[in-house]
Amino acid sequence: MELFNLNVYNILKIAIDNKSKKIYLAVIIIISLIFTLASLYFPLIIKNIITELEKNKVSVFIICYLILFLILRSVMESINEYLIAKLGNIVIKDLQQNIYDRIVNYPISFFDEYNSGDLSSRLVNDTEVIKDLITFHIPKVINGLVMIVGAVCLIVLLDWKLTVLILLISPVIFGIIFPLMKKLENTGEIQQNEISNFISKTQETFKNIRMVKASTAEQSESKSISRYINNLFKVNLYESKVMSLVSPLVNLLLIFGLLIIAGYGAYRIQNDTLTLSTLIAFIIYSFQLMSPISSISSFIGEYHKSNGAFKSLTVILSKDIENAKNTYKYNFKLEDKLIFDNVSLEFKEKKILDNISFKLNKGESLTIIGPSGSGKTTLLNVIEKFYYINSGSITIDGIDINDINTQNLRYNIGLVSQDIPIISGTIKDNLLYGLNNVSITNFEIKDILKSTMLKDLVINQIDGINSYVGESGNRLSGGEKQRINIGRVLLKNPNIILLDEATSNLDNESKSEIINSISEITQDKTVLKITHNMHELKEDEQILFIENGKIIFKGKHGELLKNNERYKKFIKNEA
Question: Which residue ranges run through the membrane (predicted)?
Fold first, then answer.
């Protein structure tokens, strides 16, 4: 399915994208058809009963037949509604999975642009609107159209003059209702946007609840969220106004239509040109027509409303997935060297990296330092292809990284970030996150727990390594999160290790021990390290000094201290 062209047609294609769904849909159609035909037959039974009553010949058999008919019809209706609801839920489940799979494969730049709460809202609330459309309104319309065609054919046979009267009334009803339905389209889009904004704001507040409380900002947040609530309230109120006009107006117009039919029918009965049984059967058919017409009008309103959800999702799903057009020639394999050759990256007309060039042999280490905002973290990000450079090249063993399979490249790179990502699971879940294809022994886990000073943390937990860390690791200290992060990378055992302020959340004692552990474990690895802790630097450490996205100095730390006054001054100020 072309997700970026999301509409009712493509949604319905999901309902028949495999053989089992097609069979399921066929069963639903057959049951719906039988149910509709049974409903169309019902007025004829009533007509016969009234005719028998007029002749004083009503039999017990026909009454029992009517009761049995109504019971079977109700059972079929119940089964049909369940099957439709089940298929609708299957379709939405597949749609949500498809949307999630697409979004999660977008590049990092997409997630810089969109709020995570907004994306979650689109995945849940927008698809819920679509679910209502396909599980309730579309089946009602399809059944209704069959009912209308069947009922019109039968009422023509019953009395063509009354049929002409109905056909004259119907366009008038639709002409009055349709403009109101059109108003719901824009309202639906605005409503979904406001729901998304509200969810995003609440998620942000709850995620940062410690900062909110530490800043005594509860009242400020309450005032802030009230704006979102009021905006949503206004949109919902406007929708309610429109809907409060539509439903009574539809019912009123239909009742007027029935009164006109009943009045004309009564007039003809008095003139002996119509029987009472025929008029009653005709009125029942008219009621049967009322329901589908009402369903169609509701569908039009709901369709316009769901168009807002379609538009919102289409905007998000129109983005290109990561490397969608790339046909990879190589898998990752670092045997020789990593080379940056005049690498530049520009974002919103601002140069983030400016002609960066360096060479790093396998097993070597490079420390990147410089003022905050100078492009250090971005330099690590482009190695993982989180962002794509505008000019220059990054090669591994002479192969451009754009020709290397992205998943394979990232699997062989270990990143310890200053952001300390922790998932809501156990300590073990976090240590083994993303390592599904690697066989990790308990001995290796114990060794890493010792190396990263996590052993005491595990021992002190009731469930040990299977203890839950809370949402985003809120039961852990910053240092414990960082040690788990480091442990995960060391278990991954990648060829290239990227350390972005890897020990920034550790106390001095822990920092010293973990630095030694990392040094031992990464002796044969290629390491790029960012640090603001100048005390960590060693005399023979290779330094890349970056400022405003440019390399200002490069060389060994000891030599730069001796020969470069500007470098020496920077180190002194930072220390």
Answer: 23-46, 58-76, 141-158, 164-181, 242-267, 279-301
